[in-house]
Every structure is written in structure tokens, then in C-alpha cells.
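Quick one, T. Sequence first:
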Amino acid sequence: MKKNKTIIVLKEKHSDRYIDAGEGLDDRENLEKISAKIIKERIREKFWYTPEDVKEAKEAIKNKNALGWLRKRSGYEYEGFELQTLEIL
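C-alpha cells:
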């Protein structure tokens, strides 16, 4: 029997992204790592963030609060995110 996977559905302004969250998604530490990766990707690609936003985002990552920062951005570039189970047949 195959194991189901958990994915993060990142709801952005213009589309949704489906991110393989790996195992242990119930673990706050894993959610924090994934949130930091999402933010770092956006900073590298120079998406939407002002210099002040970048400063705040980097501080949030440093303080292990990337997940909180993503939640705070709800209503800006992110509409939010949810966890879903991907059924493996």
C-alpha cells in the first residue's frame, strides 16, 4: 500500500501553486523550512517585495518566523495556503 503525501496549496493572486511538502508536515519545523524556501525564492526572483519587505522577510527567516510572515502577507501577494492530502494509487 502506497503512502499518501501532503502538499501545500499556496494561493497566490493569479494562480495556485502545489508544493510537495515532503513528510512530517504536521511538524512546525518542516512548515517553517518550506515557508522560508518560498520566501527566498520570491526574493531571488524579485517578486512583489519592496526593500522594506525584503528586510522584514529576511528577519522573519532568521528568527524562524517565515510561516508567520507568509500568513501576515495574506491579502497582498498571497491569499493564503492550505494543506491537502494527495492520494497515491
